[in-house]
């Protein structure tokens, strides 16, 4: 019996299942492919700004990643100091691997170029790292904390294909057969080149005013906890209480202390941030790859998805033409 005859005699439920499957795959691939083509064009067409002179809004920055603060971020599976990580723990089932645990860091890190520094807030970003480890073990938490680290060869944003870091030889086959857990971890390290496309914002005068107001309020709260000391310091008429005029003097004194402290902090303060755009449709991209390599990857994935779209769409049309 030919393929056309099989389709003609196929049960209606089975036919519509295949129709929904092929047309659904085609629709999803079509949508994602054009989304990735748009990302590629955005990367290629958006001019690279500098931190010091970047405009407010949607910008592209290129620099070096640094850990934010004295305590660096530690990756959960390899205990490696880094700026960003993504990890997954899987257990082997009867037919496939089942995810037990996964996560992505949202810890801020610093992007620095030759003109200044900017805090990157990676929550909601599509991250393309260049470093990945995939290895196996016998327990949920890996005993081997120093696996082979290889460049990510098939990862772009949210589209990832796992590439085994130990190869496909006899050793890897044995490792897959006699172990029940698979670990995946990707990282961006301090000192890595980093490319970011997202929403740039600098602290304005009102932000400084709000921060100073909060600092003044905190100072006054501390003073109020020691009432006797506050009376000794601000009770000008000696009646043992703080009246309205004396309280105003305390507020002005707290403001003066705040201004002095804030000006000192301001010298080391990073006043720029990069985060996800509040405007829908503008992707937030972070990559440790050069921007044009990233654009090429998005374009290649888009082409692959378009090929799948045409194959799936052709399958749907073939089903329809032979059924009706």
Characterize the biggest β-sheet: 5 strands, mixed, barrel
Q: Which percent band covers the strand fraction?
A: 25-35%
Order of strands in the sheet with most strands: 2-7-8-16-15
Structural class: alpha+beta
Measure the end-to-end span. Answer: 18 Å
The total number of structural domains is 2
Features of the shown structure:
single chain, elongated, 324 residues, 26% strand, 5-stranded mixed barrel, 7 helices, 2 domains, 5-stranded antiparallel β-sheet, alpha+beta
Concise overview:
The chain is an alpha+beta fold. Helices cover 42% and strands 26% of the residues. The protein contains 7 helices and 17 strands.
Model description:
This protein has 324 residues and is an alpha+beta fold. It folds into 2 domains: 3-200 and 275-323, no CATH class; 204-268, no CATH class. It has helices at residues 3-8, 12-45, 170-177, 205-225, 227-234, 244-268, 291-323; strands at 48-49, 57-67, 73-74, 81-82, 84-92, 97-104, 109-113, 116-120, 126-128, 131-137, 150-151, 155-156, 159-160, 181-188, 193-202, 272-275, 285-287. The strands form 4 sheets. It has a 5-stranded mixed beta barrel with strand order 2-7-8-16-15. The protein has a 5-stranded antiparallel β-sheet with strand order 6-5-14-10-11, with no helix packed on it. A hairpin with a 2-residue loop joins β7 (109-113) and β8 (116-120). α2 packs antiparallel against α7 and α4 (205-225) packs across α6.
């Amino acid at each position: 019996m030919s393929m056309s005859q099989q389709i003609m005699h196929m049960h209606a439920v089975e036919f519509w299942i295949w129709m929904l499957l092929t047309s659904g795959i085609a629709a999803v691939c079509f949508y994602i492919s054009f989304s990735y083509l748009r990302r590629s064009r955005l990367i290629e067409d958006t001019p690279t700004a500098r931190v010091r002179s970047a405009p407010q809004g949607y910008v592209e920055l290129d620099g070096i990643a640094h850990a934010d603060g004295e305590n660096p971020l530690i990756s959960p599976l390899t205990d490696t100091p880094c700026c960003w990580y993504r990890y997954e723990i899987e257990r082997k089932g009867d037919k496939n691997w089942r995810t037990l645990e996964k996560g992505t860091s949202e810890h801020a890190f610093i992007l620095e170029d030759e003109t200044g520094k900017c805090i990157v807030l990676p929550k909601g970003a599509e991250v393309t790292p260049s470093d990945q480890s995939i290895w196996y073990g016998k327990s949920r938490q890996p005993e081997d904390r120093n696996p082979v680290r290889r460049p990510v060869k098939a990862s772009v944003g949210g589209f990832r294909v796992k590439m085994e870091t130990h190869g496909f030889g006899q050793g890897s086959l044995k490792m897959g057969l006699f172990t029940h857990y698979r670990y995946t971890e990707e990282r961006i390290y301090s000192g890595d080149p980093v490319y970011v496309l997202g929403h740039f914002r600098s602290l304005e005068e009102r932000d400084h005013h709000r921060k100073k107001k909060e600092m003044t309020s905190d100072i006054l709260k501390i003073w109020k906890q020691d009432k006797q000391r506050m009376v000794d310091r601000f009770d000008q008429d000696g009646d043992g209480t703080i009246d309205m005029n004396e309280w105003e003097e305390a507020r002005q004194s707290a403001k003066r202390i705040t201004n002095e402290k804030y000006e000192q902090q301001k010298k080391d303060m990073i006043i720029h941030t990069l985060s996800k755009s509040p405007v829908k449709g503008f992707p937030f991209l972070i990559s440790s790859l050069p921007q044009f390599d990233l654009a090429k990857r998005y374009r290649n994935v888009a082409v692959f998805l378009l090929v799948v779209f045409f194959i799936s769409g052709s399958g749907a049309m073939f089903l329809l033409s032979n059924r009706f």
